[in-house]
């Protein structure tokens, strides 16, 4: 796996941006996967500005639908995602970000946001928090 | 990892369905990951009916936005996904399906749909087709 980020070449960044098919809201879903372990950490959204910033800085920036603003992952919590590589799918309407996740990805203190599943007939947490979420945001 | 699927208990299926936050269109994004290798295969969508069928049958069924119909993965191509486990994320608005992918996931004949990336300044395929896509659909 080659480390592409940050992408210094503005022309290359523009080519990638133009290959993405953003939806009617101007968004594209992004799957974040830890580049070496393969763990799927989270699914979030980017608009064109978030993707452009991610490519230019090598730090993953999403678009927060609830806050209607760029969301620089880890800006508040310190749980930064460094971009290692970025994959487009076959029709360009979904992205896979291979990242190096600092600490935990989930606001609950769990490593991955995908930590709930059906167990013994009920939806239960299948991974314990690694850190107290209060320590992520009370800084 | 426990094999949960198919889920025989209708009450358990209903609990899982009720824990999912479908969007305004009634859809939820689903990341499909090969359960043993960790490879991210594709991102697609489910509505409530697709998820209910997936849980009841143990074979992954998506919702095709272009065809506005249930999409039983592999029905045409034979490239079936058997459900091994299903994870919900922390706010219930994204799913991670751990699957056993028969053959390739991508309609281009590639193992994963996420097979394009920036290389030498251009968006290029980073994985070759394992099968001729014609053989997937000319059956």
Would you give an account of this structure?
The structure is a homodimer. By secondary structure, chain A is α+β, with helices and mostly antiparallel strands. The first copy, chain A, has a domain at about 10-105: Ubiquitin-like (UB roll) (Roll). Helices cover about 20% and strands about 30% of the residues of chain A. Chain A contains three helices and eight strands; from the N terminus they run αββαββββββα. Chain A has helices at about 10-20, 50-55, 135, and strands at about 30-35, 40-45, 60-65, 70, 80-90, 95-100, 115-120, 120-125. In chain A, the strands form three sheets. A four-stranded mixed β-sheet of chain A has the order 2-1-6-5, with helices on one face. The first copy, chain A, has a two-stranded antiparallel sheet with strand order 3-4. In chain A, β5 and β6 form a beta hairpin. In chain A, α1 (about 10-20) packs antiparallel against α2. The longest helix of chain A has 10 residues, at about 10-20. The first copy, chain A, is globular. The interface of A and B includes residues 2, 16, 85 and 121 of A.
């Amino acid at each position: 796996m080659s480390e592409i980020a940050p992408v210094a070449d503005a022309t290359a960044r523009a080519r990638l941006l133009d290959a993405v098919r953003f939806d009617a809201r101007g968004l594209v879903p992004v799957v974040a996967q830890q580049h070496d372990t393969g763990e799927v950490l989270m699914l979030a959204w980017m608009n064109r500005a978030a993707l452009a910033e991610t490519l230019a800085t090598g730090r993953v920036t999403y678009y927060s639908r609830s806050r209607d603003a760029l969301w620089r992952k880890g800006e508040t919590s310190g749980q930064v995602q460094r971009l290692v590589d970025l994959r487009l799918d076959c029709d360009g309407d979904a992205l896979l970000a291979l990242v190096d996740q600092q600490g935990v990805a989930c606001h609950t203190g769990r490593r991955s946001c995908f930590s709930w599943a059906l167990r013994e007939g009920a939806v239960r947490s299948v991974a314990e928090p690694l850190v107290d979420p209060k320590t992520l945001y009370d800084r």
